Amino acid sequence: MPFSKLGLSQPITDAIQQLGYSKPTNIQTKAIPVILQGQDLIAAAQTGTGKTASFVLPILEKLSQGETQRKKRIRALILTPTRELAIQVEEKVRQYGQHLKLTSLAMYGGVDEKAQKQALIEGVDVLVATPGRLLDMYARRAVYFEEVEVLVLDEADRMLDMGFIDDINKILDRLPTDIQNLLFSATLSNKVRDLAKTAVHKPYEISIAANQASKKNIEQWLITVDKDMKSSLLAHLIKENNWDQALIFIETKHGAAKLAQQLEKRGIAAEAFHSGRSQAIRSQLLEDFKAGKIQYMIATGVGARGIDIHGLTRVINYDLPFPADEYVHRIGRTGRADAQGEAISFVSKDNFKNLCMIESRLGHLIERREVEGFAPRKPVPISILNYVPKSKRVQKDAE
To answer: Which of 93, 114, 294, 341 could form a disulfide with 104 if both were Cys (CB 3.0 to 4.6 A apart)?
Structure first.
């Protein structure tokens, strides 16, 4: 089915075609008509499924019929958990709306607010914002909500995990009551559903998360290796396979900086991307990584949902993430728009429980490989596909 059959106008379909998209993804096919009909929506969609376009495209279609009427007013509000995701989503708004006379702005902390205030003075059609900075600007009377027509809570589960529930509720209390509300989340946990009861009224619900958890176009495999051999293994793989580019996920800021230094000693240039670096530096790193000026980026979880690199061929889980859904978010950075991708995980014995939970989440075992010269001294046990964490076993026994 082409995008034109979903109810999108020529200027938008022309922009989509120029960006190289030929047909809508599953979430786009299901969500776009619902949003265009004006219904509230809850959607469970994993990273890499095309969810951003599923709400941005119909919002642009609806807003194309008018414009902001007064200064410091906005018509669509998209809330995101991180600065990187705000920047990413606003970039998509501009790309998809390149043939429309609509304005957009990404608003987030960590940078001088003067430019953001100035952009708001003439009114903005689509504002993509992090909750804290939005409330700050609202308190300073730099933005008003009277003309808001649609609200999107993007990555709702992530926002809750990061402790934004109070800020979200404050924003909801200040918005008009008759707007369209859209909630997108990787998982529909109890916390997300509690938020949905407050924010979304009589919603249409879409869930494609389960069948998208392990995409066929992403080749997943793991290497068993001792913890103290991971950095030398990574350097070996980069050199041996002459990898063009890789996004390497690690758990801590200190670990990211240390790994970059270890790779540098082995003649490999890599950059560390984490919350300890300034917003200006992080933005420049993302731009350089997208442009191919940086081949190897070492990122903490803060960047897992905000890095969108077209054609990224490879993701490395240097540290195995927890919880299991975080694994799905990370590998979703590759294999986007049905392109081929590769996800490689380094697994040591102390990661065994995490591995079992990830494989249970995926519904299949991940192929194991050993690299000559890096066989672990402490073997990783055979995986248990139906592994249940001890806390849940205790809870089940009690019931």
So the answer is: 93
Strands 367-369 and 218-224: parallel
Contacts of 169 (CB under 8 A, 6+ apart): 198
* Cis ω for the linkage preceding 323 (within 30 of 0): yes
C-alpha neighbours within 13 Å on the C-beta side of residue 159: 29
Give the SS3 label for residue 72. Answer: coil
Can you give the three-state secondary structure of 208-225, one letter per residue? CHHHHCCCCCEEEEEEEC
How far does CA 226 lie from the centroid of its chain? 30
Rounded Cα distance between 91 and 172, Å, is 25
- Residue pLDDT, tens place only, 319-376: 998 878 788 878 877 876 667 889 999 999 999 999 998 998 888 899 999 899 999 9
Neighbouring residues of 252: CB distance < 8 A, sequence distance ≥ 6: 300
Which residues, 6 or more positions from 42, have their beta carbon under 8 angstroms from its beta carbon?
183, 185, 188, 196, 200, 203, 204, 205, 206
For the record, the structure tokens of 168 come out as 């979200």
Q: Where are the beta strands (DSSP E) in the chain?
A: 41-44, 74-79, 104-107, 124-129, 150-153, 180-185, 204-207, 218-224, 246-249, 270-273, 296-299, 314-317, 341-347, 367-369
CA dist., res. 17 & res. 13, Å (int): 6
Six-digit token pair at 119? Answer: 């952009």
- The contacts of residue 59 (CB under 8 Å, 6+ apart) are 35, 76, 126, 150, 152
DSSP result, 16-56: HHHTT--S--HHHHHHHHHHHTT--EEEE--TTS-HHHHHH
CA-CA distances (angstroms) from residue 334 to 104, 245, 297?
27, 11, 14
The residue whose two tokens read 């055979």 is 382
Q: Token pair for residue 372? A: 């000559």
Q: Which of 305, 326, 334 is nearest to 244 (CA)?
A: 334
- pTM (2 d.p.): 0.73
